[in-house]
Amino acid sequence: MTKFKPEDIEKHFRCQHPGCPDFAIAFFVAEIAKKNWKGATLGMAVGITMQNVLRHYMTDYDQMLLVGIDRKEARRRVQPKVNAIIGSWKKQRAELIARSVEKRIAPREFATELLATDKIIMDRLGD
């Protein structure tokens, strides 16, 4: 079984998902680092974790299951949103890169930014 070091996980995120918000990186790092990964590369562990977390926390997946939609169908319905979020995080965002620790914003402001980002993603999916 493999345990990945938090610093290696964070480095992976910063290289492969430069647009991922700092709070999300911190969350993903903690989730990945606490598990034993059997036969998984770091990239696989990151991908699996991102897919699961985004599916459950950023989509209506669980609600679909609760109303009786088949798991395979629910996954099919939410996958475009999950892909869009991950895709947006693969792009470097200047405003995140340029923001020094001293200039990071308050959690409420960040939540507002996150909601705005979610709306942009949903609008793009609607096109």
Provide an overview of this structure.
With 127 residues, the chain is an all-alpha fold. 70% of the residues lie in helices and 0% in strands. The protein has seven helices and no strands. The protein is globular and about 40 Å long. The chain starts with 5 loop residues before the first helix and ends with a helix. The relative contact order is 0.13.
Give the gist of this structure.
By secondary structure, this protein is an all-alpha fold.
Sketch the major β-sheet: none
Return the average pLDDT rounded to an integer.
Answer: 85
β content, as a range?
Answer: under 5%
Please report the distance between the alpha carbons of the first and last residues.
43 Å
Defining traits:
7 helices, single chain, mainly alpha
Write the layout of secondary structure elements.
Elements lengths: L5 H11 L5 H12 L8 H16 L3 H6 L4 H20 L3 H4 L9 H20 L1
Helix pairs in contact: 1-2, 3-5, 5-7
